[in-house]
Amino acid sequence: MFIEQPPLLYRIFFPSVHWRFRAEKKVVYLTFDDGPIPEMTPWVLDLLDSYNIKATFFCVADNVRKHPEIYQKILKRGHLTGNHTYHHLQGWQTDTKTFLRDVEEAKQLIDSPLFRPPHGHIRPSQLRAVAKRFKVIMWDVVARDYSRKRTSEQVLENVKKYTRNGSVIVFHDSLRAQGKLEEALPKSIEWLLAQGYSFQLIPA
């Protein structure tokens, strides 16, 4: 559970970031990390279009550099994007100067006020600096579609078990998540709709 839905005590240590949003109604915020890539992102966009759902994509800037046409497609279809660093750096394993430089380089390609640290790993010194310029978005539910230890059925169960009003839900438009995402994402959307949830963009 610690990964799928970070506990309250853990969230208290990061008061300046957004884990979920207050919502009296049944609202969720669907997000995708690590794209854009041609193998997955267009498929996700087409699926979202079929349900008339908008989402927020936290993009790795090096992928934006490689696939600018897909990045533009995300924006043209009415979705939001966020900064996910240039090289998908883990903050805990990276010195603050290098991490912040990577974020700044990513900002040159990703014009967004939103930021999400890869894996949610960020040092306090990094967070203090980033939070001055970005709205830092973590999550309330990680589907774990990227995990080789999870089946697509378990990914779906994570969504069913942990989603609540105002949840920020994370999937991944990445090769590592491909098989499980293709199976679990449509079923997750169907389940969320059946439960009466509506989908909104992350407030920028």
**Series of secondary-structure elements, N-terminal to C-terminal:** HEHEHHEHEHEEHEHE
The helix tally amounts to 8
Report the sheet-strand fraction. Answer: 5-15%
- CATH-derived architecture: Alpha-Beta Barrel
Kindly report the average pLDDT value.
95
And the CATH topology? TIM Barrel
Per CATH, the class reads Alpha Beta
Briefly note the structural class of the backbone. alpha/beta
Unreliable runs? none
Q: Could you tell me the number of beta strands?
A: 8
Q: What can be said about the biggest beta sheet? A: 6 strands, parallel
Rg, rounded, reads: 16 Å
Notable characteristics:
alpha/beta, TIM Barrel, 204 residues
Describe what this molecule looks like in 3D.
With 204 residues, the chain is an alpha/beta fold. The chain has one domain: TIM Barrel (Alpha-Beta Barrel). The chain has eight helices and eight strands, in the order αβαβααβαβαββαβαβ. The longest helix is centred in the C-terminal third of the chain and has 17 residues, at 178-194. The chain is globular and about 45 Å long. The chain starts with 7 loop residues before the first helix and ends in a 5-residue tail after the last strand.
